């Protein structure tokens, strides 16, 4: 399902509208408070929502940044990237997805992830390279 913002009748579909969707999520909050809550630098968020005039093309986030924005806002990866699909992922769906991720991990990865989560919380865990340290 596409989502419309503001007075525009056109849905903001496609990666080229990522910055517009991000602006919508930030709403009346400051960019810096949104960035901090997502564990992403303010300058990075600013690159997504207002590209500089000397850039030929907008800056798009890597999957690690989209994952952080999804985790902090509750909006699906698909909606953040494409603008399509329902915006909110139900609690049941979120739990199912986390269980699927957990099932796909080795026993060692599960222990590492749980220990990292205990020490750093979810954003610290997602931001770290915990799985690369033990290879």
Topology:
Blueprint (H helix, E strand, L loop, with lengths): L17 H9 L4 H8 L3 H8 L13 H11 L3 H6 L8 H14 L2 H21 L8
Describe the protein's architecture and organization.
The protein is mostly helical. It has two domains: 68 residues, 434 Repressor (Amino-terminal Domain), CATH 1.10.260.40; 37 residues. The chain is 57% helix and 0% strand. It contains seven helices and no strands. Helix 2 packs across helix 3. The longest helix is centred in the C-terminal third of the chain and has 21 residues. The protein starts with 17 loop residues before the first helix and ends in an 8-residue tail after the last helix.
Features:
135 residues; mainly alpha; 434 Repressor (Amino-terminal Domain); 0% strand
Distance between the amino and carboxyl termini: 41 Å
Please outline the major beta sheet.
Answer: none
Structural class: mainly alpha
The CATH superfamily name of the largest domain is lambda repressor-like DNA-binding domains
Name the helicity range.
55-70%
When the domains are counted, the total is: 2
In terms of quaternary structure, the protein is single chain
Number of helices: 7
